[in-house]
Specification:
3 helices; 57% helix; single chain; mainly alpha
Length: 89
């Protein structure tokens, strides 16, 4: 169930495993759980969008090579992203 509050946020109730919520609270602090989860969802939506772009490209071209994936990750995320490869999200 979602309810709209003043501004651009809405309240929503979600269920998740207790150990996952505990880890989120440890990382985010009790008062920042909503922001932490919102950022995680935003990141996942971006990764889903990238996966859709790749799938669309690969539907009309050959699959991307590992070297192409590493180069794209390096361009997007810097040298640390170069070892990312497929399935990192």
């Amino acid at each position: 169930m979602s309810t709209t509050r003043a501004g651009s946020t809405s309240n929503v109730s979600v269920s998740m495993p207790t150990d996952l919520l505990t880890a989120v609270r440890e990382r985010a602090g009790q008062r920042n759980v909503s922001a932490y989860i919102a950022e995680a969802v935003r990141h996942q939506l971006e990764m889903d969008g990238l996966a859709e772009i790749v799938a669309e490209y690969e539907s009309t071209h050959e699959p991307l090579t590992e070297a192409e994936i590493v180069a794209a990750a390096r361009d997007m995320f810097g040298p640390a992203g170069a070892t990312t490869g497929r399935g990192a999200a």
